[in-house]
Amino acid sequence: MSKLLLVPLLLFSLSAFAADTPKVTAPPTVDPQVLLHTSQGDITLELFPDKAPKSVANFLRYVREGFYAGTVFHRSIPGYLVQGGLYTRELQPRRTHSPIASEADNGLSNLRGTVAVARGADPNSGTSQFFVNLVDNRRLDYAGNQSGLTWGYAVFGKVIKGMDVVDKIAALPTRALGPFAADVPNPLVVIESASVIGEEAPASAASSAAPAEAATNTKAVPTKPQPKTGKHAATHKKPAKAGKPA
């Protein structure tokens, strides 16, 4: 009889032990964040690797190499966007890695505060340049794969802190300077450093370890909107010569 009692007692003890044992759960996935320390203030970006894995990996590669340190926001259009990520203080383009495939069809929209890949006429020509949307620019979203005009621009992150700094950059006066006919902030807004939050900051001398391939398209995109029936509507012009905005 005592042996029969031992079996249920043993089972009860094992179940009680299992109930007291804490469950091991995987840590929550945290999207990477990048801090841009600029001459106008700090901007913190949150990236979306689940929606734009190629674009995020490409951007983080440049950040970790120290590529962006010493580059400028060379294009600012109030009510539209602020763009940078390629040109030095002398407005000379840095050498970049090979272009990446566009992820503009990832379902993300070019809303205010989002960050997207800048590119040339070819949808798959994005390298290091990026832009921050100052307003909801849904006209820049993916509309179809018929051409570069309908492909749109790939959103891969958003500003989570420092949008006031972005707005301050957009409020600066602009001028023609170097290879650009207009829209260059005055004074120049320099990205003094860029780092992944939680990681060791990269070396500040980005030019000392130049990536392999030269920039093949330095045209500023997306195209500046033009007035139409009293409102700004997106238009697409014939690609300009390299080094000049459309």
Automatic annotation (TrEMBL):
Top class in the EC scheme: isomerase
Disordered, as annotated region: 202-246
SUPFAM superfamilies for the chain: Cyclophilin-like (SSF50891)
An example Gene Ontology molecular-function term: peptidyl-prolyl cis-trans isomerase activity
Reaction catalysis annotation: [protein]-peptidylproline (omega=180) = [protein]-peptidylproline (omega=0)
InterPro entries in the record: Cyclophilin-like_dom_sf, Cyclophilin-type_PPIase_dom, E_coli_cyclophilin_A-like
Pfam families from the UniProt entry: Pro_isomerase
Residue ranges of domain PPIase cyclophilin-type in the record: 37-196
Keywords, in A-Z order: Isomerase, Rotamase, Signal
EC number: 5.2.1.8
Signal peptide positions (record): 1-18
Biased composition (Low complexity): 202-215
Entry annotated with the keyword Ion transport: no
Regions of compositional bias (Basic residues) in chain numbering: 229-246
Function: PPIases accelerate the folding of proteins. It catalyzes the cis-trans isomerization of proline imidic peptide bonds in oligopeptides.
Family from the record: Belongs to the cyclophilin-type PPIase family.
Name the UniProt record assigns to this protein: Peptidyl-prolyl cis-trans isomerase
Taxonomic source organism: Rhodanobacter glycinis
